[in-house]
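Predict structure. Chain length: 86.
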Amino acid sequence: MNSTLPLQRLGQSFRDMRARRSLTQADLARLAGVGRRKVIQAEQGDASVSVRSYAAIALALGAELTCVPSRRPTLEEAKAFFAHDE
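Prediction complete.
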């Protein structure tokens, strides 16, 4: 299984959260206790960044890392979801 896409999504989430808080990468690095280069790598979804660093960055942004299922809903599940809008 390729981990690239989930890490890229996580990095984009970090970037968005940082921007909403008007933080620079250097600000976030200071808050997370990591180097600025580590923040840059995490925002790029770099697989070489440790889970500890990803977690520190999330915590500094007021978030946490959680696991959620990544499967797509079945057709029946999608129909049921949209049926609530009618």
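Summary: The mean pLDDT is 90.
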